[in-house]
Design a protein that fits this description.
There is one protein chain. This protein is an alpha/beta fold and 427 residues long. It has two domains: 135 residues, 5'-nuclease (Rossmann fold), CATH 3.40.50; 272 residues, P-loop containing nucleotide triphosphate hydrolases (Rossmann fold, 3-Layer(aba) Sandwich). The chain contains 14 helices and 18 strands. Strands 3-4-2-1-5-6 form a six-stranded mixed β-sheet. Strands 15-12-16-17-11-18 form a six-stranded parallel β-sheet, with helices on both faces. Helix 12 crosses helix 13. The protein is elongated.
Length: 427
């Protein structure tokens, strides 16, 4: 097969492993330009491909995509991509004398510098990385470096708040709410609206403000299948989601077979997802990461009787009983991949720590009759190489904002305590 030749008019984009792991499809995102994958990046992917979880899955998928491309010809010389560009691999260059740590990023920067020198200004060479340290080093050496920005969005900043006054002013088709004291109204679709009645709580959880009233409505409205709840610590997003889920699952005529709760295993500070060193089975390993979920369940279930909302009472079921009766499932996100989940109420907590790819994977698991809720704080991201504009929760909001079965609400008021609210405001 005749190999494709690159054109001098195009740029050269050198990809590092952080970009390939963020989105394995990134290879096809550069149009007619040339894409270079350093061999050291392949080595990193190979070292990460084993095991369960989002990162191993992405490593395997990226290697699979590159393997399929390799079947079309000699990838070392260049293979034509769907957008008209070229993809090829590049062997390790001698490390630049100014880079002494000999990390993977240093070798990749050295490769990019070598390509820049070879092209001598005829073509621009750009390092694409989600690693800030790599970007800083590259810039210090006069090499252009960029983040992968295709899935970045700030659309969430324009929406999510309860509107004040009459009428709809948001300009979106998804569900939104307006407060005209003492009435709360839900708007959706082109010209649809519905009055939200009363301030009644669910399972003894009473809304403390207008935003929480709107959230309870969205979380219990059958027409709303996908909900995104953001807010600072103590705003009640996880508590309300759990209460709404149980309210519709343990009552006499349940709408859902089971509540499924999952959250990314990402320690504060951005350490890698590692639970293998913890003793016990998968449930015991997940226990420390799921403590916030159990804390919220304790608040909801801490009464002798729970008001079910259908004029009857449901005997109090502690979290352990709910799990034993298969009404509640607390699961690792990695175990959701490949499953089909019909008639479930799914809650994904701390969703700001997911990549856009993870959110897509999770939603495509939803079967008929399933409702899914994503909760998170867009100001508190612990996953390496994600930020406020590139995480999965922001990505979800930007892509679903005009869908009639979607609702995005930002709960701006902290109700956990005066101290918690003060900390969220000042720190």
């Amino acid at each position: 097969m005749v190999q494709q030749k690159s054109e001098d008019s195009t740029n050269i984009f050198v990809l590092d492993p952080t970009v390939l792991l963020h989105n394995p499809e990134v290879i096809n995102s550069f149009g007619r330009h040339e894409v270079v994958i350093p061999i050291v990046a392949i080595d990193v992917l190979d070292s990460l491909k084993k095991g369960m979880g989002e990162i191993p899955e992405s490593a395997r998928e990226t290697l699979r995509i590159i393997g399929e491309l390799r079947k079309k010809g000699n990838i070392a010389k260049g293979i034509r991509l769907l957008g008209g560009g070229i993809v090829r691999t590049e062997l390790v260059a001698n490390i630049n004398k100014n880079l002494r740590e000999k990390k993977t990023e240093d070798y990749i920067i050295s490769i990019a510098l070598k390509l820049r020198d070879i092209n001598k200004g005829r073509r621009e060479v750009i390092l694409v990385s989600k690693n800030p340290s790599a970007q800083i080093k590259a810039a210090a050496l006069g090499l252009k470096a960029e983040d992968y920005t295709k899935d970045k969005t700030t659309l969430f900043q324009q929406h999510g708040n309860v509107l004040m006054g009459e009428g709809r002013k948001s300009g979106i088709l998804s569900n939104c709410y307006a407060w005209n004291d003492p009435y709360l109204t839900r708007f959706y679709g082109q010209n649809c609206e519905q009055r939200v009645n009363g301030e009644k709580g669910i399972l003894n959880i009473v809304p403390q403000n207008v935003g929480q009233r709107a959230a309870i409505n969205a979380l219990t409205e059958p027409e709303v299948q996908v909900v995104a709840l953001t807010g600072n610590a103590g705003s009640g997003k996880t508590l309300l989601a759990l209460a709404a889920a149980l309210h519709q699952t343990i009552k006499t005529d349940p709408l859902f077979k089971q509540v499924v709760v999952a959250r990314p295993v990402v320690p504060m500070g951005g350490a890698e997802n590692k639970v293998g060193f913890l003793p016990g089975n998968i449930e015991e390993k997940l226990g420390p990461w799921m403590l916030p979920i159990f804390d919220n369940l304790e608040v909801i279930l801490n009464s002798k009787e729970l008001k079910s909302g259908n004029q009857k009472s449901v005997k109090c079921l502690k979290a352990k009983e709910l799990i034993e009766n298969e009404k509640l499932c607390i699961q690792a996100l990695a175990l959701i991949r490949g499953r089909s989940l019909p008639e479930r109420y799914i809650i994904i907590d701390e969703a700001q720590n997911l990549r856009p790819l993870d959110v897509k994977t999770i939603i495509t698991r939803c079967g008929e009759g399933t409702k899914i809720v994503f909760t998170g704080d867009l100001n508190q991201i612990d996953t390496p190489y994600l930020d406020q504009e590139s995480n999965g929760l922001a990505y979800l909001i930007s892509h679903f904002i005009n869908e009639e079965n979607f609702c995005y609400l930002n709960l701006s008021e902290s109700v956990r305590s005066k101290l918690a609210g003060q900390a969220a405001r000042l720190l």
